[in-house]
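LOG
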Amino acid sequence: MRETWYILEDGTPADPKEVGPDQHGVLRHKNGVAVAIGPHGPRSTGVDVAQQRATREMVSDEPKRTYKTRESKVR
């Protein structure tokens, strides 16, 4: 099934159920990223919902570690 979703300023598609106006009237995703605005209003795209949700489930929300910790030996 295909639906029309908003495109956020970072280029990712966003479910309209997770987007709403902030106190200034700017459409924002629940994570705080604003919806991209084109010449005729908010940008949108057609999305295969099942595929998009499966892709989101595969991506981890936890940041990847950029360093390794070493154990120190007690002397």
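LOG (cont.) second protein
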Amino acid sequence: MGLYVEVESIEKGCKVIINLDTVMEVAPLTSGGCEISFPDQASVGGRRTMKVKDNYTMFQQFAIQPVSSEDIAKKVKSLKETKASIDVPKFAG
């Protein structure tokens, strides 16, 4: 069972229900609303997009944990520090 949400399609001019489990990307548009991308191997670039009137913040509530570029940099730094502090035993042989 998927997670479904109702959105206002700009192209169709009506409300539609989409399965969020199939969404690849949600990107805010400067003109307002969002562009939602779905995988579609028959389309150019392997994705199909849909523009909706709904605000980007509506979709943020479905993100498990929003991650910023600063969060990623901190995680990479901590991984490097952890790796440097691990003392690997040497086997006699």
